């Protein structure tokens, strides 16, 4: 999208959505504070938003930047070390491999050993039934 803001939340008690990025443009609808909307575009001090349902034949419009704030997005940080992430990735692949052979009448996965080093090493024990 390139505008940097994905959603805005209405902060004004009653904010107008207009057909264009100007106060004298046709008013499409009014929204209450707390409404969260996806942003389609930004022009100067205006956001183009999508309000979901059609109003007067349109599904979006322009809102004054002064009536909204960018919605807060929380970023989840991983607290794992690179070695722990590598271990989890390898372990998940081993689990999938074991599941693949669980119903196999000829081969059984008997165990595995993971050596987390650079690069990580993996030993898997197979047994023929």
Defining traits:
129 residues, alpha+beta, SH3 type barrels, 2 domains, 5-stranded antiparallel beta sheet, two-stranded antiparallel sheet, 1 helix, 9 strands
Give a short synopsis of this structure.
This protein is of the alpha+beta class. The protein is built from one helix and nine strands; from the N terminus they run E-E-E-E-E-E-E-H-E-E.
What do you see in this structure?
This protein folds into 2 domains: 7-70, SH3 type barrels; 82-128, no CATH class. It is built from 1 helix and 9 strands, in the order βββββββαββ. It has a 5-stranded antiparallel beta sheet, with no helix packed on it. The protein has a two-stranded antiparallel ribbon with strand order 2-3. A two-stranded antiparallel ribbon has the order 8-9. Strand 4 and strand 5 form a beta hairpin. It is α+β, with helices and mostly antiparallel strands and 129 residues long. The model has no long low-confidence stretch (mean pLDDT 80).
């Amino acid at each position: 999208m390139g505008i940097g803001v994905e959603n805005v939340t209405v902060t004004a008690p009653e904010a107008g959505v207009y057909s264009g990025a100007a106060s004298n443009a046709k008013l499409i609808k009014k929204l209450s504070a707390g409404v969260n909307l996806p942003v389609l575009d930004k022009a100067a001090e205006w956001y183009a938003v999508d309000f979901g349902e059609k109003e007067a034949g349109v599904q979006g419009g322009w809102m004054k930047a002064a009536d909204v704030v960018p919605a807060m997005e929380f970023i989840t940080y991983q607290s794992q070390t690179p070695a722990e992430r590598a271990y989890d990735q390898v372990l998940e692949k081993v689990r999938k491999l074991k599941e693949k052979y669980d119903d196999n009448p000829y081969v059984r996965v008997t165990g595995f050993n993971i050596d987390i080093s650079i690069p990580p090493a993996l030993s898997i024990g197979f047994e023929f039934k």
